[in-house]
Amino acid sequence: MQADNIAFASDSNTELIFNDYLQVKFQHKETPVAYAQKYSVQSRSMISQIHLLDSQSVLIKFNGSYYDPTNLLSLGYWAWSEKISTMLPFDYWPPK
Length: 96
Hints:
Elements: E1 7-10, E2 13-16, E3 21-30, H1 33-39, E4 45-52, E5 58-60, E6 66-67, E7 72-76, H2 77-81
C-alpha cells in the first residue's frame, strides 16, 4: 500500500486512516535480543502493527502526539518498546 493511501496532510497535521491494520517493518534495524527471546521472534527486522479500533481516522499533530489516543492500538515491537515516558503529556517537565 502506498503512503498517500493511508495518510493525508491537513494544515500542520496528518490524518491517518486505513482498514484492518497497518504493519510497519524496520528493515535496517535488528530486533533487540531481549525482545526476540521473550516473544520467540524469528525475524531480524523489527515489526510492529497498529490498529484503528473504531475504524475512524487518527489525527497526528506536528509534535508527534495523536488524537484520539484510545482509538490506536500498537502491537509487536512498538508495544514492547514504548515506555511510560512516551505516555506523559507533551508539555510535562519534571520539577527541579
